[in-house]
Amino acid sequence: MTDTTTLAAGQGFERRPARFDGYVHALDARLVDGGGRQLLLRGVGLGNWMLPEGYMWRFGPGAESPRQIEILVSRLLGEDAAESFWSEFQTSFIAEADIERISASGFDHVRLPINSRLIQDEDGAPIEAGYAMIDRLIEWCRTHRLWVLLDLHGAPGGQTGTNIDDSPRGMPELFADEGYRSKTLRLWRDLATRYAGETVVLGYDLLNEPLPNEWQHIYSNELVELYKDLTAEIRRVDPDHLIVYEGSHWATNWDIFTEVWDDNSLLQFHKYWSSPDVASISDFLEVRDRLHLPIYMGEGGENTLEWIYAAFRLYETYDIGWNFWPWKKIATTTSPASIEAPSGWDRIVASVVDPSAVTATEATRIFADLLVAMRIENCRWQGDVLAALFADNPLVIPAWGFGYRGAGESYSAAGGRPFSGIRDDDAVTLRWTRPGDNPENPFEQSDGRPYRLAEELVVELATDDWLEFELAVGFDTAVITALDATGNHAAVSVEPSSRGFRVVATAPTSLSRILPRG
Fold first, then answer.
1. Virtual CA dihedral for 158, 224, 299, 375, nearest 10 degrees?
2. Interval 22-36 mean pLDDT
């Protein structure tokens, strides 16, 4: 029997299902629902459903974009069988059972990446079969109390010039070709016309990650003008829905946000493989304060449990809603659901560069098995990813993941020395577990692999120094284990706090990680 005197209740933001009694909208630099209740969005991205991405299939060069993947499937299965595969894929990869599980897991919205080729033909007319997928998703989300953020992930002509936008020639031709620009304006007018009045729709995410790398400098003015024209086009038919603008260069460059284009708007950034600290989001916070608009972390993940825990606590500390990427993919440790690769899938992967790696008969069987494996009930469920996201009894917390509220609130460290480039706004002493040959960026575990010894950081604590770690639900402090740099028990005590628990040094010690489950 648990001793209730050792239980502590964290102060996580209240989980609640979406409400459709009005539109989600911007108010005083925050988001509120139709009833005026302040929101801290917690969502997940439905990547790979309407726009396949090669890495989610474990494909490399040659099968990275939707067009390349379609060519591969047609080569392996034949045109007619490939068409049948894609039809079944669209009903199997995301089904109502996925939406039910997403809702039950504690999320309040989904972000839907859309490929324009699925909803708009070459002449710019709507494709009803593609819109039917969106309609179906909206009805499922209405049933299971989730909002839907419509995200144009692949615009006509391409907005990034990379494999993720399905650009026909690997260039962001949306910004150089008037025909593609006109089709994009029509596409958003058609979407807004169809979904005006639909309160399940959270808002309109106009362009995913436009103009990365050198393109951010070449077409910056064109991006601003397109955003303004898209806004005007939408407002002609829909005065109510939230409009979402992403910065350039993978949504991380916000130099274009110098004025408010629409009062009911949201600014979106993405964050991957970088230090989860205040410095990394300071530019976004500055724009929020200056323009008085809400901000949103619209894509992030693909990392370790430790990084996920720390990064998403950072967002919530600063009242930033978020969307985790992605819901599922093949053979992963970084998503809530992992599709078990069917037997022989390695030969499908090899066939991208070696057509002789798999026979037509084998390919037919393997793709049929994949359709079964991708159903959520057949996926490997990875609850530890959700536990890290929601700070709900996580498997592990890194010592460098202490709270982000500053000295006296999240830590007290006598003589603490900031670590250059990683949480250097906090006077807490961090050091490498093994100094020498350490990477400039130790957070590049895109496959969720364990940290190498040279990548591991520890905190040095003097006697009576303390760190606070935030958790969302009740937990047993007697179970929590704190480890030092050698993997032994650190010289600390664990005390409940109003937001989670404090680790207090009882003697000089290093602190590597905390295991809340013991």
1. -40
2. 97
Tally of CB atoms within 10 A around 60: 12
Residues 110 and 146: beta-carbon distance below 8 Å: yes
What digits encode the pLDDT tens for the residues 156-182? 999 999 999 999 999 999 999 999 999
Select from 419, 405, 424, 416 the least CA-distant residue to 469.
405
CB 319 within 8 A of CB 30: yes
The two structure tokens encoding residue 161: 């010039």
Helix H or strand E encompassing 308: helix 305-317
- Residues 291 and 27 sit within 8 Å (Cβ to Cβ): no
User: Where does 86-184 show beta strands of DSSP type E?
Assistant: 109-115, 147-154
pTM over 0.90: yes
**CA-to-CA distance for 185 and 176, rounded, in angstroms?**
14
Q: 391, 313 in Cβ contact below 8 A?
A: yes
Cβ neighbourhood burial of 40 (10 Å; 0-12, 13-18, 19+): middle
User: Tokens 């005007």 — which residue?
Assistant: 232
Q: Which residues pair with 301 in a beta bridge?
A: 325
Residue 285 has pLDDT above 50, yes or no: yes
Pairing between β-strand 509-511 and β-strand 457-461 as defined by DSSP bridges: antiparallel
Q: Is residue 4 pLDDT above 60, yes or no?
A: no
CA torsion angle for 160, 163, 167, 171 (degrees, to 10)? 50
Residue 475: HSE in the Cβ half-sphere, 13 Å Cα cutoff: 32
Nearest-angstrom CA–CA distance, 375 and 373: 6
> Encoding tokens for residue 410?
């999240």
Q: What is the DSSP letter of 54?
A: G
DSSP state of 491: S
Q: Tell me the chain's radius of gyration from C-alpha atoms.
A: 24
The pair of three-digit structure tokens given for residue 283, joined into one six-digit string: 């530019």
Please state whether the peptide bond connecting residue 326 to the residue before it is cis, i.e. omega within 30 degrees of 0. Answer: yes
Give φ, ψ of 354 to 5 degrees: -130, 95
194 is written with which tokens? 């169809």
DSSP assignment letter at 451: P
**What whole-number distance in Å separates Cα of residue 349 and Cα of residue 456?**
33
Q: What is the SS3 assignment for 118?
A: helix
Contact 234, 194 (CB under 8 A): no
- Could you give the CA distance from residue 446 to residue 443 in angstroms, rounded to a whole number? 8
Quote the CA–CA distance of 508 and 493 in Å, as a whole number: 12
Bridge partners, 324 (sequence order): 44
